[in-house]
Amino acid sequence: MGKAEVGSTKYLSNKMKQKGLTRLRWFCQICEKACRDENAFKMHCQSESHTRRALAAGQNIKQVTDDYSRAFQQEFLSLLKTSHGEKEIHANKFYQEVIAKKDHVHLNATKWHSLTEFVKFIGREGICRVTEKEDGLFIAWIDDSPEAMKRREAVRRKEMMDKGDEEREMAVLRSQIERARREAEQRGL
């Protein structure tokens, strides 16, 4: 079966199908190849180049999976840190942002079988703050860099000073009220 001629209707149809993101289900992470449908994926898996790469990866499958897992986690967290900071965001909505990039590492190539499993993992590790609400899991980056710690400490100190100032002002007001009451009692006698 030959290729469609340049400029033909079939050629234009094929080019339009190639644009945009493909289904994650038909993506081969080892070859980094996206297939348009189930049949194309099946044919790709039977190809010689895929078989060769799969055999090479199969020699040390745990190492390959760990590498993909590390790359996915690093990519996920760096995007979370830069785009949302310490603000809370729905995990699934954020995952849509991650997979919007064409060259991302796919979750199905990692050691985590689902997004929920991955989110719970980064929550257990203390990398992110994970809260479960009725509409799903929410994640927020925990910034534990020295600069962030200094900022938080400065804010806490300022709040303590402001609180101390308020307490002093209240004490002065109380003493003025007490003095005014005593003076009023003395005048009344």
UniProtKB/TrEMBL annotation:
GO terms for cellular component: nucleus. Residues 28-50 form the C2H2-type domain. SMART domains: Kin17_mid. One of its GO terms (molecular function) is zinc ion binding. The keyword Metal-binding applies. One of its GO terms (biological process) is DNA replication. Gene3D superfamilies: DNA/RNA-binding protein Kin17, conserved domain. The keyword Aminoacyl-tRNA synthetase does not apply. SUPFAM superfamilies: beta-beta-alpha zinc fingers. Keywords: DNA-binding, Metal-binding, Zinc, Zinc-finger. PROSITE patterns: ZINC_FINGER_C2H2_1. Belongs to the KIN17 family. This is Domain of Kin17 curved DNA-binding protein-domain-containing protein. The lineage of its organism: Eukaryota, Fungi, Dikarya, Ascomycota, Pezizomycotina.
